Cell division protein FtsA (Candidatus Hakubella thermalkaliphila), 214 residues
Amino acid sequence: AILLDMGGGTTDVAIFRNYALLDTFCLPVGGNHITNDISIGLRIPLEEAERVKIEHGRVDKEDIDPADFFEIKDNWGESKAVLTSFLAGIIEIRVREILNLIKREIEREGPLDFLPRVVVTGGSSLLRGVVELSGEVFDMPSRIGVPLRVSGLVDRVTQPIYATGVGLLTYGRNHQLEVESRRREEPLLSFLVNRVRNWFSGLRMSSERGGPNW
């Protein structure tokens, strides 16, 4: 599987096969670049562009009502209407570019035939239509990746934007449990090793004295 973590400043990529990590790389482009594109394309401040991206961002132009629009505040503080399809066009260009860059980087190492699916996570994966666009670019099934087997604030942390953080915490916890388990086993293991070592030492000393009298 191809795992895409579409963050703010970067897009991190990991390639797995049979649950084994084959390769990783990072592209220095992500959600912040989408925000910047919106800011330039609509001539609005970055803060307003980020709000627009979160509230109205999508890439599925074909599914948008041509008359659908929303209000923004431009660089001069004046309100104006923007067609949702126009915004989607701006975002799609950047997202498609990111996906194609990833695809070309992976294909440098070999064909994609052995990879069964794309899993998209990170904040930018919340843009409507990103999963479908990923499937189109890579020509394989695609889905959103969210943290699993978590407890506590489940409704808040089981979101793509928290996938990396929750994953690191889960890995750290599992590693700590493994270390603690090994520490509990070490005294018994050391005892057995010492017994075997003493036994061999006894045999060697007996042999040096001429062996036991049977």
The radius of gyration is 28 Å. DSSP finds six helices and seven strands in the chain. The chain has two domains: 2-145, 152-214. The beta strands are 2-6, 11-17, 20-27, 69-73, 79-83, 118-121, 142-144.
